[in-house]
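User: My instructor asked us to take a sequence, write out its structure as tokens, and then describe one feature of it. I'm not sure where to start. Here is the sequence I was given:
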Amino acid sequence: MKRPKPFSSNSPNNPTGAVYGEASLRQLGELVKKKNEEMKKTVHIISDEAYRRLVYDKISLPNLFHYYPHTIRVTSHSKDLSLAGERIGYVAVSPQCEETHDLVSALVFANRILGFVNAARPDAAADRRTAGEIGRFEILRREKGPLLRRVEVLRLPAYKPQGAFYLFPNVRSTTMLRL
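Assistant: Let's start with the prediction itself. The structure tokens for your sequence are:
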């Protein structure tokens, strides 16, 4: 029998900027628990949270640890600290996960053998970026509203992002032809 693959989610979502709320995460946790019982295997959920610190409108992101014990949270500071390519982040395993020790040991081992992809001096890279660029996200938050209004003036339907860097207007819309 094949080993089940982990389920991966990301919130805020790339590319839509959608944020999964408590109800969605609760449903996901219940669904995966049910599948575990059916398959008699443990499926791990990997929650990709690279955009966790870039959310709008005072939205808070629920912690998937509360809804499913076999969750692994992964994040990178490549987005929130503008450290693209620096490979600085962390992995957190739910304390309720029975395999926590084995998972953490495997992650430490993988980090040691793949150490060449890590930043040589993460502290220096973070200091360089945080010196003035954290405010850049405040600019994104502030400019999101005017940008959405400009898209509305053009009569282009667009999903209002709840986080991340993205805004996708529907340029295939027939309203575009009336401009």
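For the description part of your assignment, you could build on this observation: The longest strand covers residues 71-76. Try explaining in your own words what that tells you about the chain.
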